[in-house]
Amino acid sequence: QAGLTQPPSVSKGLRQTATLTCSGNSNNVGNEGAAWLQQHQGHPPKLLFYRSENRPSGVSERFSASRSGNTASLTITGLQPEDEADYYCSAWDSSLSVVLFGGGTKLTVL
Amino acid sequence: EVQLVESGGGLVQPGGSLRLSCAASGFTFSSYHMNWVRQTPGKGLEWVSYISSSSTTIYNADSVRGRFIISRDNARNSLYLEMNSLRAEDTAVYYCVRDKLEVWGQGTLVTVSS
Questions:
Q1: B45–A98: do the CB atoms touch at under 8 Å?
Q2: How far apart are CA B58 and CA B76, in angstroms?
Q3: What is the DSSP letter of B82?
Q4: Is the dihedral of CA A86, A10, B91, B83 positive or negative?
Q5: HSE (side-chain half, CA atoms, 13 Å) at B54
Q6: Rg (CA), chain A
Q7: Cβ contact (<8 Å) for B47 and A90?
């Protein structure tokens, strides 16, 4: 099963803004949107957004998410050292009846 | 506190079997759909299986279809993954995950090796 497409790595400076992308098709991201997860080394993933724009309570407002067509985006403003992590997107594929994950983007805060 | 705790991981030979369990607490388990997601050490996430709240709907990834069986016992607040015909490529940390990926356990490591 083909997954969702994410850039392997993104590097930005402290207090800058990073935008991570996740590309799919009309059966997954373009249908119900994407979830975004953050994973620090040695820890399980943490949900940041579900269905592209819904933020669970407790997630910093520096994180925002959006979707345009078949591409979902995660934007992190005012980058902090603790934002350095792996970020994954995920979406339900209604054609394949499977959950897809992207390969993950490693965000480095310089 | 909402919590998921996996158990049952370990070392198993290729072709062997293993049963993972996940104990849920702090929420009404019977109201939520559940998933198993795995992660190969140092690599990305791979969804394995989904089961609806009442067990009426089950989905599996192609990579495990016909070998892994997901099940649940709502009376015991528990989720299970029966893994058969295990292969080296099944080696991973297996996570029990609630519904829309909003709650994750700490994971249990399964190593398939002779």
A1: no
A2: 19
A3: E
A4: positive
A5: 1
A6: 13
A7: yes
Per-residue tens of pLDDT for chain B, all 114 residues = 999 999 999 999 999 999 999 999 999 999 999 999 999 987 899 999 999 999 999 999 999 999 999 999 999 999 999 999 999 999 999 999 999 999 999 999 999 999
Tell the residue number behind the tokens 């850039």, with chain if given: A7
Q: How many helices (H) and strands (E) does chain B have?
A: 0, 11
- The answer to whether A88 contacts chain B (CB < 8 Å) is yes
With H, G, I as helix, E, B as strand and everything else as coil, classify residue B76.
helix
Asked if A32 and A92 touch (Cβ cutoff 8 Å), the reply is yes
Which residues of chain A make contact with B62, given a CB cutoff of 8 A? 1, 98
Q: Say yes or no for a CB contact (<8 Å) between A45 and B45.
A: yes
Interface A:B, Cβ pairs < 8 A: 50
Whether B44 sits inside 8 A of A45 (CB atoms) is no
Q: For residue B37, what are its two tokens? A: 């997601």
Instruction: List residues of B whose CB lies inside 8 A of any A CB.
Output: 35, 37, 44-47, 50, 59, 61-62, 95, 100-107
Terminal-residue alpha carbon distance, chain A = 35
In the three-class reduction of DSSP (H, G, I as helix; E, B as strand; rest coil), residue A30 is classed as helix
State whether residue A101 sits within 8 Å of chain B by CB: yes
- Three-state secondary-structure class, residue B88: helix
